[in-house]
Amino acid sequence: MEKASAMEKKGSQNLKGGRRDAASPRVTPEGAARRRPAGRVRKILPALLAAALLAAVLFFAWYRGAFLPRWIVWEEVDERAAEAYPRFARFQSSLTADLDHDGTEELVVLLWKHGRYADHKPFWTRRDTPRFVQHIFIYSEDLKPRWMSSGVPAPVARWEADEHGRIHLFTPEGEESVWEWNRFGLRLLG
Ligand SMILES: [Ca+2]
Description:
By secondary structure, the protein is α+β, with helices and mostly antiparallel strands. It folds into 2 domains: 2-63, no CATH class; 80-188, no CATH class. It contains 3 helices and 8 strands, in the order αααββββββββ. It has a 4-stranded antiparallel beta sheet. A 4-stranded antiparallel beta sheet has the order 5-6-7-8, with no helix packed on it. A hairpin with a 5-residue loop joins β6 (167-170) and β7 (176-182). It is elongated. The structure holds calcium ion (CA). Residues 98-100, 102, 104, 106 line the site of calcium ion. Residues 98-100, 102, 104, 106 line the site of calcium ion (CA).
C-alpha cells in the first residue's frame, strides 16, 4: 500500500508538472539555451557602450594632449608657429633670435607632437612612437623650415635666447644646457 501511495504521489507530481508546462509558453531546452546568451548581452550592453564611450573620450583627450606633463607652462606663442607647422601639435613656447648671424631673426618653436620624428623618419627606422614628444623647430624669417629636431634629448621646461643667438634650455629640475647654431642645426656647447 505504501508503495502504491508513493507511486500515486509521483504520478500526481508529474501531472502537476504537466499542467504547469501546458499553462506556460512552450520553451524547449534548445530554445532556452539559444535565448540565454542574447539575454546576457542585452544586460551588459549598456555597460559595454559606456565603456566604449569612456575609452573614446579618453583616447580623444590623450590625442589632444590632455595627459602631457603638468610642469609644462603653455605660453602665448607667435601666431606664425601654427602657420609654419599646420599639422596638429601643441605649441609650448616660441622665440625669435638671429641664430645664424645673417641679420634676420629665425622663428624657434618649442612644441609637442605625436612621434619622435618630424615629417620624415630616418631610413633606419620603420616605426615611430605614437606618443607625444617634445621638439624644437626652427624656421627662417619667411617661415621656411631650417631645422626640425627629432625628440629633444632632455625635457625643456623653459628657454631663452641670449644676445649671441645661443639658446639656453632648462629642464624642469633647472639644469641648463646651451646650444648654438651650426650649419646643420643646434650644437650643444655645454
Ligand atoms: Ca638669421
